[in-house]
User: Which sequence fits this backbone?
């Protein structure tokens, strides 16, 4: 809420709000899994879908740290020889929401048809294939983001993006680790259902209950990873309006663009038009990134040009 009530750079802070919303979103979804454990298979894919959108927001945040202007950012990246990489990373980041949405749909259908089987590791059940697809998609996305961070860290070092990425991915990693451990113990026979606990409790409800408790710690961690200090009016005299234009206010009242109690900022962050557009243009970005890479490779193959002087012998 601090970023919403101190909304001075909307292009960056809307991404921060989306990322930090991982904590309440995971808490609510995990609580629903505990509450309706028999329907957990239908609910759990929502975690993966939100994770993919939050990672897209993190990628946009890194881009914003380079420059809030698209033209200026492209100019900076082109100067550093990173524009092609940025376009390719764009595609691999935004393939993940599409994949997770498809996985969600297939999971709902196969569970309704009784061919999903959450606790089975047999390949005839959809659970094994959906998990494999999610793993590949998530791995490609996170490796791409890390590659982009490493290639541009000289431009974003003062914002400490690695700490921000670590805070976000620790939630995901811990949730996946707990679910994997309990699912393995359940499917291997080490945990047995009884009068009080079912297999759904072991594979979904208990890990989700742990996530609910862990979110309290992560909420504190996020305060340090995503501080509001750099966006306070005393540190940011030139501030953006919601349309992205720069404005400078004289008085304290009304300096921030988030509206009363940050409601406008929250509504602005909930509007995922930019993330949707990012998904739509992803194939074009990949094609452009490959074209730039091919051009760079061809340029590297051209031998250097030397100037030769022709001397004639004097007679």
Assistant:
């Amino acid at each position: 809420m601090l970023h919403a009530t101190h909304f001075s750079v909307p292009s960056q802070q809307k991404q921060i709000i989306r990322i930090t919303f991982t904590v309440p979103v995971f808490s609510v979804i995990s609580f629903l899994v505990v509450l309706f454990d028999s329907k957990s298979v239908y609910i759990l894919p929502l975690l993966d879908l939100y994770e993919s959108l939050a990672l897209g927001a993190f990628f946009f945040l890194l881009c914003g740290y380079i420059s809030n202007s698209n033209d200026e950012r492209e100019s900076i990246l082109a100067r550093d020889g990173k524009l092609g990489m940025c376009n390719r990373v764009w595609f691999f980041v935004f393939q993940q929401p599409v994949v997770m949405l498809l996985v969600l749909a297939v999971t709902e259908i196969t569970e309704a048809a009784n061919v999903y089987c959450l606790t089975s590791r047999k390949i005839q059940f959809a659970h094994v294939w959906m998990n494999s697809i999610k793993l590949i998609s998530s791995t490609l996305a996170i490796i791409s983001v890390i590659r982009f961070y490493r290639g541009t860290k000289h431009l974003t070092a003062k914002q400490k993006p690695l700490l921000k990425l670590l805070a976000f991915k620790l939630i995901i990693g811990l949730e996946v680790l707990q679910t994997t451990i309990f699912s393995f113990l359940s499917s291997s026979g080490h945990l047995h259902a009884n009068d009080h606990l079912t297999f759904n409790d072991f594979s979904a409800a208990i890990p989700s209950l742990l996530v609910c408790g862990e979110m309290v710690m992560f909420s504190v961690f996020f305060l340090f990873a995503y501080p509001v200090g750099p966006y306070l009016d005393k540190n940011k005299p030139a501030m953006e309006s919601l349309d992205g234009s720069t404005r400078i206010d004289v008085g304290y009242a009304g300096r921030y663009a988030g509206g009363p109690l940050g409601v406008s900022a929250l509504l602005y962050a909930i509007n995922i038009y930019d993330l949707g557009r990012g998904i739509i243009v992803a194939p074009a970005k990949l094609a452009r990134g490959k074209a730039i890479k091919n051009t760079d490779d061809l340029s590297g193959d051209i031998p250097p040009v030397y100037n030769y002087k022709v001397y004639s012998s004097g007679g």
